[in-house]
User: Fold these one by one.
Assistant:
Number 1:
Amino acid sequence: MSATIDFIIDDKEIQGRPGQTILEAAQQNGIYIPRLCYREGLVPHGSCRICTVLVNGRPQSACTQPIAPGMIVENDTEKMNGLRRNIIDMLFVEGNHFCMFCEKSGNCELQALAYRLGITAPKYPYMFPKRDVDATHPDIFIDRNRCILCGRCVRASRDVDGKHIFEFVGRGPHKRVEVNAEANLADTDISMTDEAVEACPVGALLKKRVGYAVPIGQRLYDHKPIGSDIESGVAPASSR
Ligand code: FES
């Protein structure tokens, strides 16, 4: 088997390794493909569809689709970014995302993607769903108003922490993240250092008593758009 696979993303010839996904190979070559449910170190979920690219003209999720010789991938095009804007618009209106009051602002991947893609206000009507907050645990709380159902906490708790604390329950608009316990988060053995807490891309899982330790204006995406680290060649170590 060849040691490398040649293919094209947005008219640029790149090389990847056998077994890599499109997203991984792109990242290795300094090309950012927007993503939300994907997180390095977790099994890809392929559920948010933000990373959707066209492969030889057909839509595929870049976080799950393996590379193949000669494939032609369209990523950073007006068409694909327009589709991503639509998904992000819908995520904003189907939850209750008040960025100006959220501790995650500036570190939030949903907010950062909206900025990167030029969204200033959602175009769909807000749904203002009624969702629960679980603040029973002494160190961590869940605000389901901000949950985008990416499943990163579910996979991180199951596969990295080995605790199986979170799982999806319900269907359609009633789908939500629940805890594997008698009643609520306080009945679990979650801890501040769990990968599940770090894995949340939005402000749905937050630590108590550390709010605003990093001031607004000095946070991860306050100065550079999300994906800039990949485009400047400072990709996360495990993708190199
Ligand atoms: Fe690929 Fe969510 S990042 S489907």
Number 2:
Amino acid sequence: MFSNKNEFKDSFLKRLEMSYGKKFAESTKRDQYQTLGNMVREHISSNWISTNEWNRASNNKQVYYLSIEFLLGRLLGQNLLNLGIREVVLEGFADLGIDLEEIEESEADAGLGNGGLGRLAACFLDSLASLNLPGHGLGIRYKHGLFDQKIVDGYQVELPEQWLRHGNVWEVRKPDQAIEIPFWGKIEHSHEDGKLEFRHVQSENIMAVPYDMPVIGYETSTVNTLRLWNAEPAPHPPHRDVLAYKRETEAVSEFLYPDDTHDEGKILRLKQQYFLVSASLQSIVRSYLKKNDTLHEFHKHVAIHVNDTHPVLAIPELMRILLDEEHMEWEEAWNITFNTISYTNHTTLSEALEKWPLHIFKPLLPRIYMIVEELNERFCKELWNRFPGDWNRIENMAIIAHGVVKMAHLAIVGSHSVNGVAKIHSDILKNREMKLFHQIYPQKFNNKTNGITHRRWLLKANPELTNLITETIGTDWITNPHLMIELKRHIYNPLLKEEFAAVKRKRKEILADIIEKKTGISVDKHSIFDVQVKRLHAYKRQLLNVLHIMYLYNRLKEDSNFTIYPRTFIFGAKASPGYYYAKKIIKLINSLADKVNSDPKVSKMMKVIFMENYRVSLAEHIFPATDVSEQISTASKEASGTGNMKFMMNGALTMGTLDGANIEILEEVGKENIFTFGLKADEVLNYYENGGYRSSEYYHHDLRIRQVVDQLTNGFFPDTEDEFEAIKDSLLYENDQYFVLRDFASYVDAQEQLEKAYKNQDKWLEKALLNIAHSGYFSSDRTIHEYADGIWDIQPIPVIH
Ligand code: Z2T
């Protein structure tokens, strides 16, 4: 079908006419997209089947990655690339007068995630398949992914996202593998042969119907599976208003909760979590029992990974299956369970820690609650034996306390591995946030520094840079990204520098065109492209970036001798719809953009751009065009960050705090090749513990700060009245919890250093190339190898030739 251009064209035209009953000339872009998508799916079907067959037939251990989010983005282009057939399609389409890129861009993003956590899951799937590892994703088939963002009059407006509007060519519905999930009702017990038996009665059941999507490895025969569960009415609905039951059932897979690092505590969210977990575990156990008679060795053949605490009910759910369905003794069930489960923590922010009130948990999941209660009792008894009389410790560590279930405690107790996502984050878990648990389970704790798939973030997003690297060091780096380090020998080569500069220039032109098309603003393509794209959060400190731009504006207005190297400040960020402060910052960025861009003098030197609806597909245009990567979170707050790695891989230099993976970027590239500033993590944490910071002192003693803070409310931004009062209050009357004013001077200094460095283009290009050379470490292939060896103990599957 894809072996050469003409064969491809023939089958494409034949299929298009067969499926749509019209001539090619009458076909729409959508017809063409659908036809190509179906051809790709058919093309991989035999490898998909053989991967599944081999997994079924072999005793090879399987890993299942449970995640409430998978932020996949678009799939057509990546699938063509991984299959090595993109060139054939490109050429065939060219003959037919079809622009492949245009077809690819007509696909809706699969946006089933908020940000880093969901995108990490997507990168991991790509690495698992590309490394021929038997690893599969399990998630929810949300009808609506993360909301679409519109900016109206500077404010964020949320619209329901509709990725399934025109269907999804990549999914296969498997109704015969549907699974029933019980909610509500009560538990009856009886004695059978002297053993207690539990029966869940009067439950309201929901059907989980799987939709399988192929996960295609890069130039290999492995095709893994991402299974997304859809919520549908069960065959025997409860005896009540049938329409209400249908509505409530379908609501379970209707929406992705739009909260990034914030816990909502809504009953529907708990329903989603148990829906995902129960469907996944029942389906894993069912397929395991097709090739094994018992579950006694389950943990030797199955690893289940829980992505943050959202799927942590996998622990009591597996216990339930082993106890109630397999009639195992508690001790054996427990041994199998914690040896099967591993857990990743993604944040230490206290507002993100999931705590489920018993009055929600207990009635919704009565049997699961009983098991969690028993677990808690046994765990507290163990603690009592080890620390007799230490009530305080037991209260702090209990799984159930003060009327809530603490999901992180359940996760740590019920798994054999607990990992953080960057060195500093794992250290903070061990030494601070989870110190008491680390004391009793030191061997469980480990670090797995995050990574990103270079196949999307370099090969797909930046083919120009990809070609340049290959021309310089050959092709081996593509399958062994750590070999990118070989580029280091060439960074002083003037020709390479010039070619890299040309690539960057071209990518800046492309982004400038997109900006012009979307905002009507024309930016200087020779200016420094300085970018902060990520979710909007107080701890990520978009506000620090804004205050610095306001300071530059003031200098330019007041001092005619002051000049700057031209800069384009680019922002992209979605705010959680209920996050008042975050929405104010979006309005502030847009007000600043109006102020700066409409000033005849200042706008010659700088522009401020807010890019609407930041998402994976837009990110693919932004990273390659960036010169400066803003990673300026309050130290200790950003667990890892992954955007930082995507920028680095595309030859941007980092302006960052010593937080998350920025620290490991610094360790890789050395201090000459990154710009760091601000408080260190232990300084921040000591301030929190011991006090000693008064933001008002910085306001009173630094004129630059006083001026920009005053400008938030003194009419500097026309027609905003008391719009930004709350932001000013957060800085002054709430004592600036994220140390924006504390780090301001240091940030300004670092930005001056950066500007100086940029003016020395030749050196800058060397630094950028050196960053690229060292970015191979941050490929998720490295991360996945570490998970495979250190946590899951899985082996690759054979490749078909
Ligand atoms: C999320 O994206 C992250 C953490 C969360 O904690 C929740 C969400 Cl939705 C519950 C992010 C971290 O903020 C970021 O530092 C990290 O790089 C990313 O997860 C992947 O580990």
